[in-house]
Structures are given as structure tokens and as C-alpha cells.
Design brief:
single chain; 73 residues; mainly beta; three-stranded antiparallel β-sheet; globular
């Protein structure tokens, strides 16, 4: 079976609060959509067990990266 991100595939939802203002953090998609898969700004991982997403606060605009464990689909 192939490993897939449950957040990318709509199997889970983000439920994070902003560490700065306690606002609602919304998923803005995979970080590679913004930087590319070989960007120097990404931590290089040799495995595919994590999918890094960008979360953005709807109140203050703060964004953070979160790693989501992939699952077999």
C-alpha cells in the first residue's frame, strides 16, 4: 500500500489554535506547493512518513508548519 497524507485526502481536519492570539488556524496546504519539493528552505527527509502543511491564523496572519503522519491507503 502507498503512504498518503490524511490531511491532503480529507480524512482528518486541523484543530489548532494560534500560539500568538489563540485564533483559529486553517490549513493552507502542503508546504511544497509554495516552496517546491527540493527547496533549500525545507528540512530534507529521506522518508515519506510525514507531510508538512502550512497553517495560517485567520485572526493575526501568523503561519506555522506542522508535520502530519502519513497512513497506508
Amino acid at each position: 500500500m502507498e503512504q498518503q497524507c490524511p490531511l491532503c485526502n480529507g480524512l482528518i481536519e486541523v484543530s489548532e489554535n494560534c500560539p500568538s492570539c489563540d485564533g483559529v488556524m486553517m490549513d493552507s496546504g502542503r508546504i511544497t506547493a509554495y516552496l517546491g519539493p527540493y527547496s533549500a528552505y525545507l528540512e530534507q527527509q529521506s522518508n515519506i512518513e510525514k507531510c508538512v502543511h502550512l497553517l495560517a491564523c485567520q485572526e493575526c496572519g501568523l503561519d506555522i508548519r506542522v508535520s502530519v503522519d502519513t497512513v497506508p491507503l
